[in-house]
Write a structure and sequence with these properties.
Blueprint (H helix, E strand, L loop, with lengths): L2 E4 L3 E3 L3 H8 L12 E11 L5 E11 L4 H7 L3 E11 L4 E8 L6 E11 L7 E11 L6 H16 L1 H15 L23 H14 L4 H17 L7 H10 L4 H18 L4 H4 L4 H6 L2 E6 L5 E5 L6 H8 L1 H26 L6 E6 L10 H17 L4 E9 L3 H8 L5 H4 L2 E5 L44 H13 L4 E6 L4 E7 L5 E10 L1 E9 L7 E2 L16 E2 L12 E2 L4 E3 L4 E7 L4 E11 L11 H6 L7 E11 L1 H14 L4 H8 L7 E5 L1
Parallel strand pairs: 10-11, 11-12, 12-13
Antiparallel strand pairs: 1-8, 2-8, 3-4, 4-5, 5-6, 6-7, 7-8, 9-10, 14-24, 15-23, 16-22, 16-24, 17-20, 17-21, 17-23, 18-19, 22-25
């Protein structure tokens, strides 16, 4: 049920302009609202005559909630987006606020309006409406809605006090009158009704996104709206969303599918924090022969890779696939950032970059099978998560061995991407029709015959003394993998993935949050007083070898156990479809061992892309195609924390006592849980 609030009309016996002068003083923070921690302006636009000002702020608010809610949410601060449209001509201020945090679980929508009093133009009216709809919050949706609206209503009462506080502050400074806006004398007044403001907005769209047809713009709006309603976490920018639409020829369903998979991947690997948190190993700085170098003739960032000079075998043996993959991920993230910078510099949309690959020195050493396998995996990751980011690929000085490498990798590259490849053998890149057609002569690197100094490592052979054993590489890759908050597991037909949680105190709360990345699964919760045997880890790979922990599969329930005797079901089984995000909680009745199980349900849905998957090609002989993937996070709340939070909720809202009794009285109820998508 949606909770709504409608404030009575508030009248200030002061002119609109003076009220606006007082209103802006509450930013970036306000001492009268302690929970309002900070705010920053992320966008500001002015109409040509200055009459209309659009301001977008990102506001940081302290999460003023009971302890249980904070523990479940895992945050101390919430973020909101505030969009203000001030029209000095009509003397109005329209404010719209929506939540950025937990937007897939909670929908907060607030609208405020400052207008001139209809009977006295020296007075100002204020109206405010708000709605709150909590779709999913571990079974406490109704109680949380009512509690939040109660606190919200209390905070609104301070609104009038805040304006009056700043009015008094202005008066003490000698400001008692602010003149009304008047149009500039040098130019006639403009009217937003004639489309002037709309044209300006359209120009902004053209500058950052390019020319879009009405159908393409409609697809972008619909996909972004879907993200705001369903996606938890950072919402990608319009430029990046548009790349996925273009990759699927603006087929909304196909674009949504690959974008959903990519967002799950980004969350799993914490890609949004990669540039700030990951430090490149010194080996990469010394022997990875690639780097950014100015831009091409179209303003696209230019990346140069001297692949022929790179010791791919040495890097794989010394660093492992995971570090090389992270290096490529950081390159792509930096590319996205440089595209945004060049868009601002050149005043036109720059959404992709140019890559120049120099193959001088390429030989059979580069066709080392583990190195090719690593390359194929990198290509797959880039194709799936950075579509339409490569504007052009210039391959120079291709040797005779190049067709062999091309035969191996080309099936894994999308056809649209392959069409962007230009291959030059020998010195064909020199002269008309070559490099100078795409890159200004002044920035052609010195090692290609140009005059520009290119500060890219020359590479060389990685010393074998730096090679690491298979056990060391596996341990390193496991560490990189487990750095993520969310864990990943594979579910096979006949081989479920199971997670053990030991509970020593009844009435503890088990919470979970998981995404179904591939295929459909059935989710179960079991209880046993017996200690399960040490888990069997079945990490499957080509030829039975160990692979990345992404394929982790753990089974705990012994085949000899009898349901109803050795263990019991404590929750109704839940079928979860591919792409769904599931959250829930379970209040335990007994101490002992609880087992969360994800079991194979049906054949995975076909991918929107027709390209073969690297894992399927390399491991098809040993791994069953009946495989699902889940990414999960769990936490256990102690009974004392749980009851303490319930007490806080009861004191805040009497209507919550019934829910409290239902979840804490184990003598009357076997369990209490909720599962929300």
């Amino acid at each position: 049920m949606v909770q709504q609030y409608q404030s009575p009309v508030r009248v200030y016996k002061h002119p609109f302009e003076l009220i606006m002068a007082a209103y802006v003083r509450r930013f970036p923070n306000c001492p009268l609202i302690p929970i309002f921690v900070d705010s920053e302006v992320v966008k500001e636009e002015h109409s040509d005559d200055g009459a209309i000002v659009f301001t977008e702020r990102r506001c940081k608010v302290e999460a003023d909630a009971p302890r249980l809610f904070k523990r479940m949410a895992g945050v101390d601060y919430l973020y909101f987006i505030q969009k203000n449209t001030l029209n000095r001509r009509t003397r109005t201020l329209h404010i719209e606020v929506v939540n950025e945090s937990f937007s897939n679980r909670v929908i907060v929508h607030e609208i405020c309006n400052y207008t001139v009093h209809p009977e006295n133009e020296e007075w100002t009216c204020f109206e405010q409406t708000a709605s709150l709809d909590i779709k999913s919050f571990f079974g406490f949706e109704n109680a949380a809605e009512k509690l939040a609206m109660k606190q919200y209503a209390n905070s609104i009462k301070k609104g009038k006090e805040i304006i009056e506080y700043y009015l008094k502050e202005l008066e003490e400074e000698g400001v008692t009158h602010v003149p009304r806006w008047s149009p500039p004398q040098a130019s006639p007044p403009t009217d937003p009704a004639n489309g002037q403001w709309d044209k300006r907005s359209h120009k902004q769209t053209q500058r950052y996104l390019g020319d879009l047809t009405p159908l393409q713009e409609s697809c972008l709006i619909r996909l972004r709206q879907w993200l705001q309603e369903t996606h938890k976490g950072k919402i990608p920018k319009d430029q990046h969303v548009l790349r996925f639409l273009r990759a699927r020829d603006f087929n909304l369903e196909k674009a949504r599918e690959i974008l959903c998979q990519s967002l799950t991947w980004r969350k799993q690997h914490q890609v949004d924090f990669l540039l700030d948190s990951w430090e490149r190993p010194q080996l990469l700085q010394d022997y990875y022969t690639g780097g950014w170098h100015h831009h091409d003739r179209d303003g696209r960032p230019l990346y140069i890779l001297r692949l022929g000079q790179m010791d791919t075998k040495g890097l794989v043996r010394a660093l492992g696939e995971e570090n090389l993959l992270r290096q490529v991920m950081s390159i792509n993230e930096e590319g996205l950032r440089r595209c945004e910078e060049n868009t601002r510099v050149f005043g036109r949309p720059i959404s992709c970059w140019t890559c120049l690959v120099d193959l001088e020195g390429l030989n059979m050493r580069h066709l080392w099978r583990p190195g090719v396998k690593a390359l194929l995996r990198i290509i797959e990751v880039v194709e799936a998560n950075y579509p339409e980011t490569l504007g052009r690929l210039l391959i120079l000085r291709a040797p005779r061995v190049f067709p062999v490498l091309w035969t191996l990798v080309s099936p894994f590259i999308d056809e649209n991407t392959r069409n962007k490849f230009l291959v030059y053998a020998g010195n064909d890149y020199q002269g008309p029709g070559g490099l100078v057609d795409y890159i200004d002569k002044e920035v052609i690197p010195d090692f290609l015959g140009g005059d520009c100094l290119c500060e890219i490592p020359e590479g060389g052979t990685v010393p074998k003394s730096l090679y690491r054993t298979a056990e060391e590489l596996e341990s390193e890759e496991l560490r990189l993998w487990t750095d993520a908050i969310y864990k990943s597991a594979s579910v096979f037909k006949g081989a479920p993935h199971e997670l053990l949680i030991e509970i020593s105190e009844p009435s503890s709360v088990i919470t979970w949050d998981f995404d179904v990345c591939k295929g459909d699964v059935v989710f179960n919760i079991y209880h046993s007083r017996r200690v399960p045997q040490p888990p069997k880890k079945e990490i499957l790979g080509a030829h039975g070898s160990l692979t990345s922990p992404a394929a982790n599969n753990v089974q705990l329930i012994d085949r000899s156990w009898v349901l109803g005797q050795d263990y019991s079901i404590v929750e109704t089984a839940l079928t979860c479809k591919e792409g769904e995000s599931v959250q829930g909680s379970h209040v335990t009745r007994w101490p002992g061992f609880y087992i969360l199980q994800w079991r194979f349900h049906s054949s995975p849905a076909c991918s929107a892309s027709s390209l073969p998957r690297v894992d399927d090609v390399l491991a098809s002989l040993q791994v069953s195609s009946h495989k699902c993937k889940v990414m999960f996070y769990t936490e256990v709340l102690g009974s004392h924390d749980f009851r303490g939070s319930m007490t806080s909720l009861e004191s805040s809202h009497s209507g919550f006592s019934q829910l409290s009794a239902a979840t804490t009285s184990s003598s009357q109820s076997q369990s209490s849980s909720t599962v929300s998508r």
